[in-house]
């Protein structure tokens, strides 16, 4: 009887393989979705997983200031397609590239929040990237 209980526990644990982890969420294809820093999302109906790794070179214009140009920030994503190794890609808020194609899928940076502020300095953990995944043309 004890062996049956252990066997059922092992099966239950193995049955969870392939399911989403606590830090991995599922998002819809062809719809805007938010990704918080460090979180991994799986895009439904694709073989893509995307993780927000970091934001660099945030020179966007602070909300309290009028600037001649909007500036730019670089969003670094880790993208994995199927069983291939994950690769880092950099997308820009103001410059190019704002999107990248991986296999059949186009990943687009739609927005980056929060906007810079003179009054408040943001940390990496504050950033949220809004992305969209569509079929590549």
Considering the chains and any ligands shown, give keywords for the structure.
137 residues; mainly beta; five-stranded mixed β-sheet; four-stranded antiparallel β-sheet; 10% helix
Summarize the structure in words.
The protein is mainly beta and 137 residues long. The protein has a single domain (21-135), classed as Tick-borne Encephalitis virus Glycoprotein, domain 1 (Sandwich), CATH 2.60.98. The chain is built from one helix and nine strands. It has one helix spanning 2-15; strands at residues 24-27, 33-36, 40-43, 48-56, 74-81, 87-92, 99-102, 105-113, 128-135. The strands form two sheets. A five-stranded mixed beta sheet has the order 1-3-4-5-6, with no helix packed on it. Strand 3 and strand 4 form a beta hairpin. The radius of gyration is 19 Å and the shape is elongated.
